[in-house]
Fold this sequence. Notes:
Layout: H1 25-37, E1 41-45, H2 49-54, E2 66-68, H3 74-87, E3 94-100, H4 102-106, H5 109-117, E4 123-128, H6 164-169, E5 175-179, H7 184-195, E6 201-206, H8 210-213, H9 220-229, E7 236-239, E8 242-245, H10 247-255, H11 262-265, H12 276-298
Parallel strand pairs: 1-2, 1-3, 3-4, 4-6, 5-6
Antiparallel strand pairs: 5-7, 7-8
Helix pairs in contact: 1-7, 3-5
Amino acid sequence: MHENIFKINEKEYILPGNRACQGCGLSLAYRYILKALQENTIVAIPPSCLCVLHGLYPTTPVIVPALNTTFASTAASAAGIVAGLDSLGKKDITVLALSGDGGTYDIGIQSLSGAAERNTNFIFACYDNEAYMNTGTQRSSATPLGAMTTTTPILTKQEPKKDFLKIMEAHHIPYLATVSPAYPIDLYDKFSKARGIRGTRYIHIDTPCPPGWGFPTRDTVKIGKLAVETGLFVLFEIENGRFRFTGRSKTMAERGKLLPLVNYVEKQERFKNMNSEQLEGFQSSVNSKWNEYLKRAEG
Length: 299
């Protein structure tokens, strides 16, 4: 990886001035996504923080065409765009469906699963900020155990986060990857690679959210790095069934030691009501998943 470290596209596809929050992890990720995919890209967007970033028609800071869809139909709408381009014989345009965790894990899973089962030729990327941030930080199935939202009636979420990566891998798609805006070169490389692969490509983006997670806006990259360095969010790719660590996670696997999860949890207000039992269980689940990945890398 990192073959593009001195070859990043210098063109900017998001112009100065948008309505994203200060320190928005999505805006950092989106900048490098578009640099990797370049001009010949059409984006399908459900109701989400990304809609806010794009702005209200006819004014937008983003210079690639985009289609606003309904919450449930992001993948179906993107599949329709693919079919239309195919009928016109246009093979050089990348279709990107970009949805939050609510529009991916919850409301949008049926159309995404259908498209992936058919191996539709598009990239579906989920920017996962672990709640419905655009409408007031309501709980989603991506919200982690022990986190507080505006719809967790007993202080914290009692259920673990849905393992959506396993769900997508079960569709036997040609490419699946995880990325973080805290590691933009890794992100850029993976979207560049995905651009050249045919079929359904799924990319999962860890997306720190200052107002929803409760940390200072200046710490977005710091929180993103801690997610990786504690093993909570692992950077990897699965290409045609073959797993491999990438970037910082590859380094952590080689060193054989992760930071304790408390380093990540204690810096976010959303975990302020997490008790010691929940933290212990959270750490245990992170360790278990990390060991699972280590075994896969060895195999």
